[in-house]
Structure formats: structure tokens, C-alpha cells
Amino acid sequence: MADVEQGAALPSGVPPPDVLNASAANGTDAANGTATRFVSTPEGTALAYGSLVLMALLPIFFGALRSVSCAKSKNSSDMPETITSRDAARFPIIASCTLFGLYLFFKIFSQEYINLLLSMYFFVLGILALSHTMSPLMNRAFPTNLPNRQYQLLFTQGSGEAKEEIVNYEFDTKDLVCLCISTVVGIWYVLKKHWVANNLFGLAFALNGVELLHLNNVSTGCILLGGLFIYDVFWVFGTNVMVTVAKSFEAPIKLVFPQDLLEKGLEANNFAMLGLGDIVIPGIFIALLLRFDVSLRKDSRTYFYTSFLAYIFGLGLTIFVMHTFKHAQPALLYLVPACIGFPVVVALVKGELTDMFSYESVVEVLPHTPRLTHFPMVSGSPASLADSMQPSRASPRRRRPTPHAL
């Protein structure tokens, strides 16, 4: 899923899927065309990694909170996608095939044209994801004295009794404002590939992924995380496929923060990077434990906070090992044991291990919950996860613009 890579020279705007990159020496001298080695200052490195950790925690924390209300929602547009144990078992296999397929694509076809298509694809998904993320804030910030008009986008085929609805999409003025703001960010990203725009899309993808992708029980979560643990270690340590795709893949599927921000400001280009897979995959497991806490009907959120702290510990350990051994590290190698082990130990101490593994999140989600039916590439991008879902067809109406995903 992800690796920590030391010393890779990645130009600005070339995002690695699921790569935590702490390049201690990269950069080029544009003036004379000779390679120069940039050595980040301790302050710059600390700022970059502290910022990445903070940005990783935000979508997990708020996405988990929103997943609770999402699970109880009767709005078809907010219904979560449920991952079953069968889905979880197949996930790493399909992910490996997709990753290797991308590797062959980049070897055979022009990287420029592939990334152009990816930019357009993520431009649309990013706008929808960011708009959905902004919706709760817009509902609070929208002036009450302004009219909130209702709109409907309707496409049909046929006529008379044979008329069939293809699209029946309802939205309002608040949704339009969110879409307009998100479109501006999208245009900024496509034209400039600026790291701030990249992070806005990346945070939106990650938050939507944690909110809308639901594991049905703890056993499924263990299967998914365990399988991706093996997947991550194999593709990082066993081959160069992950790193090759990482350096070629141009899309907002990672969070970045420059280590030379103090020297160059917003034009900095020596990035530390964290792939979205290292946020979303542990994040959906942490969100499941929050829903388990809620199901216990107690005032405490013991398992949520335990797993949340375990994630911080695992991510910090990843960074520490990378700097100690100066070698790329698969982040899930440390995140998976921490996120599963800590809550299990707490459950054993409290005598609630049986309750934890017998909890079924799908019971909370009401009938007709859509489930994951086929698989995207696992590069950590909730956007690619999004496109693999099939929504419930109980109602064609969608009240809010949802990125259908994440």
C-alpha cells in the first residue's frame, strides 16, 4: 500500500500512490542542468512530518464521526458502501493485478498521455469529493436571508408509459456554491499542480473514504488489513513495481508537504509524501470501532481513542524507522499491527473481545445497504475506490452531490 522512500528525486506534481517520501536529498539545478543534493534542515523536516501526521489524523477523526451519522442516514445519497469478508479477502489480489497492470501501462505507453487522462478523471472526482466534504460547513455558513432555491436535473428516455428516468438529480443553491468553489480548486490543480490544491483534493478523498466505506465487522477489518499488510510488504520490498508506478502516477492520491517550505515558501518543491491508502485503510477500521463504541451505549469511546492513538504510534514508528535505516518502508507494516493489536488487547483486558468480534455494523445501517461488488486499484486513492462501488438502486434520486465514493 505504501512505502517510505528515502532519497528519491520526484518532480513537483508527480505523486506516488501510497508513498511516504522523505527525500533527504533531492532537487535539480535548473540553471546549469546538473543534479544538486538538497539537504533539508531539521526544522523543515520536523515541520513537514508533523504536518503530514496532522493532515492524516483530520480525515480519520472527522470521517469516523461522520460515518456514525452516515450509517443511520435514510438519505440514499449518504448510504455507505459495505465491505464484506469475501470482498476483503479478494481485495489484495485484485489490487496486485491492477498495480502490475499500471506498471505495464507506464512501461508501454506514453506517461504524458496517461497522466492527462488521469488528471481529467480526478478533476471531476475531486470536485465532487470536495463539494460533498464542504456541504455540512455550507449548511451552517449559508446566510439565512438568502433564498435557497431547489433545482432538478432530469434525463429520461422514451415517451408515454415507456418513459424511463436515466438521471433524476436534485440539488439546491448551497450545493451549487460548493460545486463552484470546488471547481475553482480543480482548475487550480489541473493548471498548476500546486501542492496546496493537491492536498485539498487528497483530504476530501480521504474523509469521504473513511465516511462512506464501511466494514461490516471486525473480522472483515482484520482480513482486509492483514491482506494489504502482505500486499504492501511484497510490492515494496520484493519488487520495484510500487516505486515505478509511484514516480509515474500523476494524481491527487497523496498528501504532500514541502521540507523546504521555510526556505522557499509556497514555491517549495522538496516534498515529504503520505499516500491516501495509509489513511483510508486504517481509517475505515478505526471508524468501525467508533461505531462499535456507539453500539455499546456507553459514554466512553475507548476503542476509538485506542485505535486512534495506535495509528499515531504506527505512523510515528514508520517515520522513525525510515530515518534510522535510510530505506523505503511500507507504512502498513507498522500501522496494521498497531491498529489491530492495541484495541484487541484493550478488549481482552475489559472482557469484551467476544462482543467486539460479534458486532455487525451492517445492522446499524438499515436495509438495502449497498455493498462493494468489484475492486479498483489499491493505490490508496479513495477516488479509485469510489468508482468501484455500485449504489443502491432503491431510489434514483440523489439529494446531495456525492462523489459516490470515497
Annotation keywords:
globular, 406 residues, single chain, four-stranded mixed sheet, alpha/beta, disordered N terminus, disordered C terminus, three-stranded mixed sheet, 13 helices
Explain what you see.
With 406 residues, the protein is an alpha/beta fold. It has 13 helices and eleven strands. The strands form four sheets. Strands 1-2-10-9 form a four-stranded mixed β-sheet, with helices on both faces. Strands 6-7-11 form a three-stranded mixed β-sheet. A hairpin with a 6-residue loop joins β3 (26-28) and β4 (35-38). α3 (111-141) packs antiparallel against α4 (173-192). The longest helix is centred in the first third of the chain and has 31 residues, at 42-72. It is globular, with a radius of gyration of 21 Å. The model is unreliable at 1-19, 21-35 and 363-406 (pLDDT under 50).
